[in-house]
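Re: the 74-residue chain
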Amino acid sequence: MYANLAARPQFNPTSGENANGVFQGLMANGAVAQSLASVESRDLLKGQKAVEIMHNGCVYRLQNTKLGKLILTK
């Protein structure tokens, strides 16, 4: 009845993902889903603290915080 602590996913500080990230691309039938396009935040921000993004006629602001988190606001 006790959880096996050794089986818990481990956090990977270099990628920011845990071990469950490996399974996120799997579909219910075991087939691998298509991978999503990936863009580095530094490529979007280009050294700036914030950038505006136009989406469906609305302006969104992507902001990098002092702690390295990203905030997206409308």
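The mean pLDDT is 77.
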